[in-house]
Amino acid sequence: MRAQFVLSEIGVGLRRNLTMTFAVVVSVALSLALFGGALLMREQVSTMKDYWYDKVNVSIFLCNKGDAQSDPACTKGAVTDQEKASIKADLDKMGIVQHIYHESEDEAYKHYQQQYGKTAYASSITPDQMEESFRVKLKDPQKYKVIATAFSGRDGVQSVQDQRSILENLFSLMNGMNVAALCVMALMLVIALMLIVNTVRVSAFSRRRETGIMRLVGASSFYIQLPFIMEAAFAGLIGGVVACGMLMLGRYFLIDGGLDLQQKMQLVKFIGWDAVLSKLPLVLAIGLLMPALAAFAALRKYLRV
Amino acid sequence: MIRFDNVSKTYPKQNRPALRDVSLEIEKGEFVFLVGSSGSGKSTFLRLVLREERASHGMVHVLGKDLARLSNWKVPQMRRQLGTVFQDFRLLPNKTVAQNVAFAQEVIGRSRGETRKSVPQVLDLVGLGGKEDRMPGELSGGEQQRVAIARAFVNRPMLLIADEPTGNLDPQTSVGIMKLLDRINRTGTTVVMATHDQNIVDQMRKRVIELEKGRLVRDQVRGVYGYQH
């Protein structure tokens, strides 16, 4: 194996098909950026869901000592054991309830810290500021109102929340964007693959003299195919690098600079740099392997070895 | 070196076989002319030897190997022991003479030291010493064919296959090429040459194999181009 010889062949090939190489780089970069974006969006959605989100439909928050002073619903003071027991008993009697979880103040604190642990606001919170709650799973999530009318305003109940109503719209929007991104990605991917196949075809044709001679003097098929595959892999890798850059810039402009959502939406927890960085190796690997495989497949058709 | 046992070759979608029941043997060190009109099966014969094609019937042995049983990935190894020269030279126009010859060693992974040694040697042998850095376009047809022969011979093949190597050359230049092939033959390399050139065949007086419509019609030691009665 003569590395220098193979490398110079690759360089010649890439320069000869410069426009095509550019098109491959751009389409691979766009499809991978959309792919990475979709992954990050999914991660953002799961970051925004709290511990209970997927488990329950309705949360009944109970008054704590702090609420007794500040919250009009809790003027009678913190919830008593007796009130808790009667709420629990009433819930048990309701046919629409599938399951009831009880979350103590300490548990609430623990879950809160798990989700928001790193933020400055979270570290100022203490367990006794958290509210006890009943988390209710309904047989039919639409029947939230039955629980709301039964329990809001009752002694010891601070509020009844339809868990999903707050975030559901946002999540369905994000899911929609996710699906759209994946569709466009699939389309771009097809374009990228077709471009690669075409590049290989043109490249195989313009190098048919060389490959013909290689065949005759007994070069192995691996040696003959290697420059083509490396060309595609190299263009794909560049595309992958560009995609990584786009993802990092995207996070920066949406969250830190530019739109600066971090400042504007302080209660929302955004994905961190670690989430972005953890996706980059996958993006690079796909950028490298997918074009190489496409080139390999195309060679079977367009290059006799 | 080459053995054909009842070899037939029919190309797909064609009724008439390109080769029909050909049996012959070519020994190590021989110089053989392959003659016959266009479409007589000469090219098919050479393609079978190079294993560009496989025989439809019969057995082809080259360098002691049964080509029907040779798996695809071993074909390159076999071809490294063959050299090939064509009518149209098939040089790479953007590489110099020396680079063209070196290409045959580079692509089979020979070391740079080896190439540096063997390329000037073989260029001297074909009479192109001093023209290493010329481009093929600057050379005459005869010189270009010498480069092609140098490239075919640089890996010291056991067998040299020449498909009408003088087809594009004038008679005088052709004589020079034939002398070169004869010299290569004398180093022990078997040479099989397909040709239409009557003068050359008549002058050289080597073994002549004639094909006609795919059949072997003549195999003559020290033969001439046409029939001798």
TrEMBL record, chain A:
Belongs to the ABC-4 integral membrane protein family. FtsX subfamily. InterPro entries: ABC3_permease_C, FtsX, FtsX_actino, FtsX_ECD. Pfam families: FtsX (PF02687), FtsX_ECD (PF18075). Forms a membrane-associated complex with FtsE. The keyword Transmembrane applies. Residues 56-160 form the FtsX extracellular domain. Keywords: Cell cycle, Cell division, Cell membrane, Membrane, Transmembrane, Transmembrane helix. Part of the ABC transporter FtsEX involved in cellular division. It is a multi-pass membrane protein. It is found in: Cell membrane. One of its GO terms (cellular component) is plasma membrane. This is Cell division protein FtsX. The chain crosses the membrane at residues 21-41, 179-200, 212-230, 236-255, 276-299. It comes from the Bacteria. Residues 183-304 form the ABC3 transporter permease C-terminal domain. It comes from Streptomyces montanisoli. The gene is ftsX. GO terms for biological process: cell division.
From TrEMBL, chain B:
One of its GO terms (molecular function) is transmembrane transporter activity. It is a peripheral membrane protein. SMART domains: AAA. One of its GO terms (cellular component) is plasma membrane. It comes from the Bacteria. Pfam families: ABC_tran (PF00005). Its main location: membrane. Residues 2-228 form the ABC transporter domain. The keyword Magnesium does not apply. One of its GO terms (biological process) is cell division. The keyword Cell cycle applies. Keywords: ATP-binding, Cell cycle, Cell division, Cell membrane, Membrane, Nucleotide-binding. It is found in: Cell membrane. Homodimer. Forms a membrane-associated complex with FtsX. Part of the ABC transporter FtsEX involved in cellular division. Has ATPase activity. Belongs to the ABC transporter superfamily. This is Cell division ATP-binding protein FtsE. It comes from Streptomyces montanisoli. The lineage of its organism: Bacteria, Bacillati, Actinomycetota, Actinomycetes, Kitasatosporales.
